[in-house]
Write a structure and sequence with these properties.
Helix 6 packs across helix 7. The chain is built from eight helices and three strands. The chain is mainly alpha-helical.
Length: about 160
């Protein structure tokens, strides 16, 4: 999907991904008792409705999370107004979070970046336009945090 959307280098262009998926972004700031964003039906398509005030990096993750719902859980594309969280919805949220991490920090691009720059989560977070916490989690998930954590950027032959 990233190649088809023309998003082949970091930081991933969410604008290109949203456009490729025929989604739109709609800002509706500060709705009470709602989530930060939601995937909602609009006409014959869908929109990601942005509701909260977030920093730019958190907003990127939130949009990627909603793209995850669009692709993984299309049945959830209804106007949501909050509500109880149960085990099933918690699983769907976790899946969307995992999708967002993989979308914003694709495996191959992260591995290449670690080879080029080392596994410093803060530096890589800047490169991928994500939070250092999100990058640190991604490096651990990919098994790169410990293995490359203290190597110099010129460690091309490692691993």
């Amino acid at each position: 999907m990233l190649k088809a959307a023309g998003a082949t280098h970091e930081p991933i262009s969410l604008r290109d991904v949203v456009s490729h998926l025929n989604l739109s972004l709609v800002e509706r700031r500060r709705e009470p008792f709602g989530s930060e964003a939601a995937l909602v039906p609009v006409g014959d398509g869908h929109a990601i409705e942005l509701r909260g005030r977030s920093g730019e990096r958190r907003l990127r993750f939130t949009i990627a999370h909603e793209i995850g719902h669009f692709l993984l859980h299309p049945e959830r594309a209804v106007a949501e107004r909050g509500g109880a969280t149960n085990q099933a919805s918690a699983r769907l949220e976790h899946e969307a979070d995992q999708f967002a991490a993989e979308l914003l920090m694709p495996d191959d691009l992260v591995r290449q970046a670690v080879l080029e720059d080392g596994a410093d989560a803060r530096r890589l977070a800047d490169r991928f336009d994500v939070s250092p916490q999100a990058m640190n989690l991604r490096l651990r998930r990919l098994g790169l945090a410990e293995r490359h954590g203290h190597q110099a950027p010129s460690s091309r032959g490692a691993g």
